[in-house]
Amino acid sequence: MFIDAHQHFWRIDRGDYGWMDDSVAQIRRDILPRDLHPLARAANVGGTVVVQAAPTLAETEFLLQLGDHDPLIRGVVGWLDLTGDVPAQIARLHHPKLRGVRPMLQDISDTGWILRPDVLRGLHQLARSGLRLDALITPRHLRVIDQLARTVPDLPIIIDHCAKPVFDGTDPGEDWRSGMTALAAHPQITCKLSGLANEYGPGWSVQTLQPVFDHSAESFGPRRLMWGSDWPVLELAGDYSRWLSVAQGLAAGLSPDEQAGLFGDNATRIYDLG
After folding, report:
1. Whole-prediction pTM value?
2. CA 115, 117, 123 angle in degrees (round to 5)?
3. Cα dihedral sign for 267, 271, 83, 60?
4. Cβ 143 vs Cβ 179: under 8 Å
5. Cα(179)–Cα(228) distance, integer angstroms
6. What is the three-class DSSP state of 47?
7. E-state strands within 109-265
8. What are the pLDDT digits (tens) for 45-83?
9. CA 8 from centroid of its chain's CA atoms
């Protein structure tokens, strides 16, 4: 059974998904566990990590409530205000399935925001609580996350979507490659093979995405990579079964044990899904 290390649920009438404009009309509908179950069964996915899609405590509580009733949800990566009273917010969110926190860094114009003193205080508290930081970043953040790892070395950091490389043909660029190599030098940083269909756009395939996979696998090693679907955002570029098939094609050169890690065992260990 596979583990999907990155997917989303939402209920539109909750009202805090500010990014859901007409550009994402295709996925601007309620997305709940019942919608994922048939896709997961067909793909032999036995558990998921559901990740926040709104910067509110209320949405995190909503996801944790879903986790109370659905065993497919093995872990939740939520949101909290890292500039606020982090211990109080963690206490409010206290739940056995809360595995990490994700500030939406790609939407914050200040690239260095994560290194602000008040944010760093919150991240130190996050680390002391045994939680992880999911880093929703683009290549402009690579040097910043490198510095963050040096500053808070006891904080596990998980890079979402291979840091969203910008493709020139199949080439993700030297800045991306060198930045990912630098991040991989920190043993507390891991990486998700997710979101690449959306980043590449029309024409994504094993061949077009292989350079990103190869560099990520070479840099982080197969024990620090996790597969995730990024569903239902994935629906803007493709579908669940095709992305899983392409990801398996990308990883065809790995050993059976390494493939088992990429598609489940690593997520279980990195997120401590038990």
Report:
1. 0.97
2. 70
3. positive
4. yes
5. 21
6. strand
7. 132-135, 157-159, 189-193, 225-227
8. 999 999 999 999 999 999 999 999 999 999 999 999 999
9. 10
Integer-rounded Cα radius of gyration of the chain: 17
Identify whether the C-beta of residue 259 lies closer than 8 Å to the C-beta of residue 265: no
| pLDDT tens figures, 83-135 | 999 999 999 999 999 999 999 999 999 999 999 999 999 999 999 999 999 99
Angle between helices 174-184 and 142-151 (to 10 degrees): 10
Alpha carbons 204 and 265: distance in angstroms, whole number: 26
C-beta contacts of 137-140 below 8 A and 24+ residues apart: 137/105, 137/106, 137/163, 137/164, 138/106, 138/163, 138/164, 138/166, 139/163, 139/164, 139/165, 139/166, 139/173, 139/175, 139/176, 139/179, 140/111
Cα distances (angstroms) measured from residue 219 to each of 11, 215, 262: 37, 6, 14
Pairing of the two strands 73-78 and 2-7: unpaired
d(CA 60, CA 230): 17
d(CA 274, CA 269): 8
CA 186/CA 25 separation, integer angstroms: 39
Cα atoms found within 13 Å of the Cα of residue 74, Cβ hemisphere only:
22
DSSP bridge partners of 190: 158
Q: Quickly state the pLDDT bin for 41 (edges 50, 70, 90).
A: very high
Distance CA 264, CA 270 (A): 10
**Dihedral sign computed on CA atoms, order 192, 209, 204, 223:** negative
DSSP 171: B
**Measured between alpha carbons, how far is 87 from 221 in angstroms, rounded to an integer?**
34
